[in-house]
Every structure is written in C-alpha cells, then in structure tokens.
Amino acid sequence: MEKPAEKKPGQIASGDRALSALLRMGRVYDELDRRLQPSLPEGSRGHIRVACIDGDCLVLAATSSAWASRARLEAETLLQAARGFWPEDLNRTRIIVYAKAL
C-alpha cells in the first residue's frame, strides 16, 4: 500500500480560514523573533524568543526559569527593538517559560 504524499502546512490550511490565520500569525511572530535575536547577547539567542503579541504586550518565551531571569534583564531592550518593527503600540513585556520539545 502506497503512503499518501505529505502536504505542506499551507496546503492543509487552505480550506480553513482560522487555521490559515494561525499559520500567518506564526510566520509574523517568527519574523519578529528573527529580527529581535540580534538585540540579545550571543549566548542568550535561541533561549529567549518571541512567543506572541498580546494587545500592547510583547510576550517573550524562555527555555528555563534561569533564562526567564535573563529575559527580564533584556526585556526593555527587546521591547524597544520590537517597537521598530511592530505596527501597533507595544508598552510592556511578559515573560513565560516553556519546555523545549525533545
């Protein structure tokens, strides 16, 4: 029995507006993260990332509580940098911790 061809995320979401919107926002957040990474010290890059924008809040995700502490130190720098790219007002930050997938 032949395995069906794998579809790309855009193909899967093409018929679902909500899923398409989620994929678009994911790409926007990935692009914002890509632009903000150079604002971080080299050792912090990849451990502190953009999670999303929630209203006027830049939400940063850290890979551990230790990196979350570092993210708090870098939050104002990242907020200032994000303001240069984000079309709406950003006035605050929030830090969350997430576990990396294995």
Question: Explain this structure to me?
Answer:
- The chain is of the alpha+beta class and 102 residues long.
- Helices cover 43% and strands 19% of the residues.
- It is built from three helices and three strands, in the order ααββαβ.
- The protein has helices at residues 9-13, 17-36, 65-83, and strands at residues 48-54, 57-62, 92-97.
- The protein has a three-stranded mixed β-sheet.
- The longest helix is centred in the first third of the chain and has 20 residues, at 17-36.
- The protein is globular and about 55 Å long.
Features:
102 residues; alpha+beta; 3 strands; globular
Topology:
Elements: H1 9-13, H2 17-36, E1 48-54, E2 57-62, H3 65-83, E3 92-97
Parallel strand pairs: 2-3
Antiparallel strand pairs: 1-2
Number-wise, the strands total 3
Number of helices: 3
Strand order of the largest sheet: 1-2-3
- Main sheet makeup: 3 strands, mixed
The helicity comes to 40-55%
List the helices and strands in order. Answer: HHEEHE
Q: State mean pLDDT (0 to 100 scale).
A: 90
Which segments are poorly predicted (pLDDT under 50) over 5 or more consecutive residues? none
